[in-house]
Amino acid sequence: MRSVLVSTILVAIVAVAGLAIPASTSRLTVVMDFKGPWSPPAAREMQKESARILSPAGLSIDWKMRGEAISGGADANFVVMTFHGSCQFDSEPPVYDELGPYASIRETNGEVQPFGDVDCTRVVSSARYAMSGSDFDRQNYLVGRALGRVVAHELVHMVTRSEDHAHGGVQKAALSGRELIGAPLPLELAEVSQIRRALAAAQFQK
Ligand SMILES: [Zn+2]
């Protein structure tokens, strides 16, 4: 009985270690289209936070501004993320009475398309009203972290072509302001596996 237990634990450790070190990395280009004001420090942190969340699943991101050439040309795997409203810290953003989406993906005939829309004003509002004390010393850094979590969430929908949500982690159906700016919010292991399978099936460029 004991040996069974030990081997089960070993298998679990090997499985987790295997997930922590991706066998291969697939590249995805994300084209950013900012429709309103945005903060370069927040955008930098957004990119870092998305990378932190997605790299355990073997996905690395090349970020481009709209209009920039995409390396790899027409063969490249790319998605377009459009940012609406103001993507920078605001000390008095609108207060929303109702919960609403931070972002959405576009669908055609039930198929998830490589286009996402982020409601920056809503993300900034949630982040702002979750801040307290020393958070205000790094307000755009935290806005960037919040945006990075929202973007990573939408990229998972696009890569897996699924609108499913997880019970925990960044792929939950709803995230509070505190979850957007607080302690690390990684993918759950089930989502990591799902992304790996999707990447392998799609034969993303290595
Ligand atoms: Zn979602």
**Gyration radius, rounded:** 18 Å
Structural class: alpha/beta
- Sheet having the most strands: 5 strands, mixed
State the shape.
Answer: globular
Any key phrases for this structure?
6 helices; globular; Collagenase (Catalytic Domain); binds zinc ion; 206 residues; alpha/beta; disordered N terminus; single chain
Explained architecture:
- Helix 3 (120-130) crosses helix 4 (139-160).
- The chain has a single domain, classed as Collagenase (Catalytic Domain) (3-Layer(aba) Sandwich).
- It is of the alpha/beta class.
- The protein starts with a helix and ends with a helix.
- Strand 4 and strand 5 form a beta hairpin.
- It is built from six helices and five strands, in the order H-E-H-E-E-E-E-H-H-H-H.
- The chain binds zinc ion (ZN).
